[in-house]
Amino acid sequence: MRSSTAAALFLLLATVTLPLLASAQTAGTTSMPPPSPPATATNNSRLEKAYVALQALKRAITDDPKKLTHNWCGPDVCNYFGVFCAPALDDPCQRTVAGVDLNHGDLAGTLPEELGLLSDLAVFHLNSNRFSGSLPESLRSLHLLHEIDVSNNQLSGGFPSQFLCLPNLQYVDIRFNNFCGEVPAAIFDKKIDALFINNNHFEFTLPKTFTNSTASVINCIAGRPDQRPGEECIAFLHRPPVHCDAHGCFAPPPPAYAPPPPVY
């Protein structure tokens, strides 16, 4: 008896609720457009170029002991580890790669020319790895680049003249590499907030226009005379890291330097 009652109740619920569900689904289909597919390299030209660049970087990495690029597969580049996407500045309806952060990854390899395809890149962090060779010439195409940190690697070659072509560059850190040769005087005329170039093999003299430079810590160079106080340099070196999320990458302002209190 109980079994037949339960079966009858189930049949009643099915005959009442299923038509209602079907009606609701039909109404929803006619009143609301289907959701747009997520932006990937298959339906977004900016992400397609980013896919080419990131896959080239992955192929150029010869050792990835922490498996940072393990999930760098498929067209959904915005879900790659260390890759941050945001709406494009010139077209908010388009997603694009705004940041790459692979700091402290112990990655070994070289940096391919395809990185120049990341035309919307604002933040590029590769410090504390084992990258060798020179910085690619194509970096001069990254006109939105705000911050580059490739310190503590094994990079070599002359001073990266690509930096002179980047109008939005504000923070440069290439310390602890094997760069050599002369440092172009023009770099001291750029409106850069912070420039760290020590612990390389550079040969340079400060130009006469050095005192006109707007760089906040451009003279934090170890072993050179007339440098800023060590406390001020340390404040910049320990500034808060760039924050990247779905809305983009944001560099907080460096901490204000407060001189030590006088000693009486």
From TrEMBL:
SUPFAM superfamilies the record matches: L domain-like (SSF52058)
Main location: secreted
Alphabetically ordered keywords of this record: Cell wall, Cell wall biogenesis/degradation, Glycoprotein, Hydroxylation, Leucine-rich repeat, Repeat, Secreted, Signal
UniProt KW DNA repair keyword: no
Domain Leucine-rich repeat-containing N-terminal plant-type: 53-85
Compartment(s) of residence: Secreted, Cell wall
InterPro entries assigned: Leu-rich_rpt, LRR_dom_sf, LRR_extensin-like_regulator, LRR_N_plant-typ
Signal peptide (from-to): 1-24
GO biological process entries: cell wall organization
Gene3D superfamilies from the UniProt entry: Ribonuclease Inhibitor
PANTHER family, A to Z: LEUCINE-RICH REPEAT EXTENSIN-LIKE PROTEIN 3-RELATED, LEUCINE-RICH REPEAT EXTENSIN-LIKE PROTEIN 6
Entry protein name: Cell wall hydroxyproline-rich glycoprotein
